[in-house]
Design a protein that fits this description.
Blueprint (H helix, E strand, L loop, with lengths): L5 E4 L13 H13 L4 E4 L11 H15 L5 E4 L5 H14 L3 E4 L9 H13 L5 E4 L2 H4 L5 H8 L4 E7 L6 H9 L7 E5 L1 H9 L4 E4 L6 H13 L2 H10 L1 H10 L1 H11 L16 H14 L5
Parallel strand pairs: 1-2, 1-8, 2-3, 3-4, 4-5, 5-6, 6-7, 7-8
Length: 299
């Protein structure tokens, strides 16, 4: 029971204004990731707009991604939901569909306590043998996992890893080492927050859960492979080359930026789910500038 290691790329989930998934376009996006040989594909994460989709549309999206991946690349499926019984049903759906693993966030309206989150995760984990990844994303869920809670959950059967926000570069070595010392050896310690993820990988993180890789997988695979080869300064230079995107992610959010970029390069014609508005004006111009720079590969 293990989670994917390396680069996990998260594409958007194109849909129409009524929330119906555009499976043809989603398969096109997934094909780009398979062809780039990413280590795994994450569908229905935050970039995949999972909270905006019904159970039926989530299943359609997952089925489309799995059909395109066709066993060549593992697929992790977001299974987070507001109610525990809904998260259980989504995890069971993902297992039945053939997903490799599930990404579980503590979605909430009423702020949750640590005990409530523990019981929620324990209930989902007991309902299926699908390996689950703790999705620690306080920016959207408004719940932040403590190391103590991650440690407590890490000994729960079927909870196989965590997707944490990557710390700032100077804190990465201590942060990775501290958590590593508290969890079982099989437990995967992975990181999001693209602009800090390179240093988290260098510090010994197992996985990079990437927004940008969902659209530009080869650029991100270059970084992941450089780290794997021990070419650490090369990895840092490649991440620095993508700084215009990192700045845009901080300013506007990765979801809005990736939708704008995907439309600009012609891989889809999609808008974010309402009420999120597409970028326009100066923000859109900045995305276009970042695209021109990013597609010129650094040495």
């Amino acid at each position: 029971m293990t989670l994917p290691r390396g680069l996990v790329a998260f594409p958007i989930t194109p849909m129409d204004v009524d929330g119906r998934v555009d499976c043809v376009t989603l398969r096109r996006l997934v094909r780009r990731l398979v062809d780039a040989e990413v280590d795994a594909i994450g569908v229905l994460g935050s970039t995949g707009s999972y909270p905006y989709l019904t159970r039926e549309e989530r299943r359609r999206a997952l089925d489309a991604a799995l059909a395109e991946a066709d066993g060549r690349t593992p697929v992790m499926a977001g299974v987070g939901a507001l109610r525990t019984n809904d998260a259980i049903a989504l995890a069971q759906d993902a297992k039945a569909a053939g997903a490799h693993s599930g990404l579980l966030a503590p979605v909430s309206y009423t702020p949750l306590t640590e005990d409530e989150v523990f019981v929620h995760f324990q209930a989902v984990a007991q309902s299926t043998d699908l390996p689950l990844c703790i999705y620690n994303n306080p920016g959207t869920t408004h719940f932040s996992f403590s190391e103590a809670l991650i440690e407590r959950l890490s000994w729960t059967p079927n909870i196989a890893g965590v997707k944490n926000p990557a710390p700032e570069a100077v804190a990465a070595p201590d942060s990775v080492a501290s958590l590593r010392g508290r969890v079982p050896a099989h437990f995967s310690i992975g990181y999001s927050t693209d602009w800090n993820a390179t240093e988290a990988l260098i510090a010994g993180g197992d996985a990079w859960y990437s927004v940008l890789a969902g659209l530009f997988p080869s650029l991100c695979m270059d970084i992941r492979r450089a780290v794997q080869r021990g070419e650490l300064e090369q990895a840092r230079r490649q991440s620095q080359h993508l700084e215009p995107f990192w700045s845009l992610f901080k300013a506007y959010g990765g979801l809005r930026v990736v939708y704008a970029a995907a439309n600009m390069i012609g891989v889809c014609d999609a808008i974010p789910p309402a009420p999120i508005l597409p970028l326009s004006g100066e923000a859109a111009r900045q995305v276009a500038d970042a695209l021109r720079g990013a597609l010129l590969r650094p040495n």
